[in-house]
Amino acid sequence: MCGISYSNEYISPYCRRLIWKQLVEIVAALQRSNIAHMDLKPGNIIRVGNILKVCDLGISKYGSGVGGGGTPNYR
């Protein structure tokens, strides 16, 4: 995605917008499906080619009215 690697290198504003757009689309798709990830954090986002994917849906919840959970520092 825009030639970024997994290091702490500079990411251009254009590439940051693309990353955020994909993340917003992922969260919107989960919401449309009534799924709460419950542990969304950088470690649970992977890149496959130019596509971002959310992983570790192990504690996700389906339905409305889901409560808190997940990694304490990311609540």
Task: Give your account of this protein's structure.
The chain has 75 residues and is of the alpha+beta class. It has one domain (13-74). Helix content is 27%, strand content 16%. It contains one helix and four strands, in the order αββββ. The chain has one helix at 13-32; strands spanning 35-36, 45-48, 51-54, 61-62. Strands 1-4 form a two-stranded antiparallel ribbon. Strands 2-3 form a two-stranded antiparallel ribbon. The longest helix is centred in the N-terminal third of the chain and has 20 residues, at 13-32. It is globular, with a radius of gyration of 14 Å.
Observed structural traits:
16% strand, 27% helix, globular, alpha+beta, 75 residues, two-stranded antiparallel sheet, 1 helix, 4 strands, single chain
How much strand content do the residues show? Answer: 15-25%
What's the helix-strand series?
HEEEE
Over all CA atoms, what is the radius of gyration?
Answer: 14 Å
Q: What is the number of independent domains?
A: 1
Strand order in the sheet with the most strands:
1-4
Tell me the helix content. 25-40%
Q: Helix count, per DSSP?
A: 1
What's a quick, concise take on this entry?
The chain has 75 residues and is α+β, with helices and mostly antiparallel strands. It contains one helix and four strands.
